[in-house]
Zinc-binding dehydrogenase (Streptomyces flavofungini), 309 residues
Amino acid sequence: MRALLVDPTAPAGLRLGAAPDPEPAPHQALVRVAATSLNYGEVAGVVPGAEPGAVLGWDAAGHIERAAADGSGPPVGTPVVTLGEAGGWAELRAVDTGFMGVVPDGADLGAISTIPVAGASALRALHRVGPLLGRRILVTGATGGVGRYAVQLARRGGAYVVASTGDPGARGESLRALGAHAVVGDPGEVDVPLDGVVDLVGGRQLVAAYEKLAAGGVLVAVGHSGGDDEHFAHGVLYGDQGRHDRAIVSFHLLGCRGLGRDLEWLAGEVAGGRLDAGEAWRGAWGEAGAAVAALRGRRLHGKAVLEVG
């Protein structure tokens, strides 16, 4: 099969080449991939240290080529969206049936491929915050793939949504169109006590956002794109003066149960036009180098989609 292979000598560290077809385990289906989306974390953090010849890729959408031998999962020909630790940047992918969701017939599989890491991470983060109706939620790094989904889902859940982005003047209008009630340039500018935070930046911004939490508030640490450390000043973690029972939590997406149901629901919402996939770039997978360079250079605000084949 053809695949995007890790190659340290190639532009962006990737090249099109040949790789062995994957051999599915009994609980896995073989998927013929139509499209994959790139995540900043994998192109900036995983590709540079990966073994030459490796086939990476977390997100992919396509059709079932061979159903799982154990009878789990959908039948041959079903359109699906899939999540995995690797293997998405290839014509064929072996996927655990618990990490795939059925996609409505006729859906744009390029848009659907943006869902697995970005959409599912946003949904699971908001689940950890708790009930959203009437609550105040901050999303940091709101113009990225996860952030755009988080803003929309929080607004759909009935929250008052504050979006934080490095350039609110240029990006504020688009974030408000997604559902943000207010847009700020830094968590320190938030002027209301928060019930929850979906933090996609980490470091100094995580600390600043935590200090805005009201009693009982929850900060969910999802991303670490800021690249700096978290340093809490003495007293920040005290529980008095309205700071009772605040929490910082994290999770690993592949460790979550029920992801297939999440992926299927998100696919239906994107296919039905009720969620914006946040697609900022689309091209053939031979153009992967350009997309990777744009993501690493922070020139894309949203998702990059590669059409396979």
In short: The first strand starts at residue 2 and ends at 6. The chain has a mean pLDDT of 96.
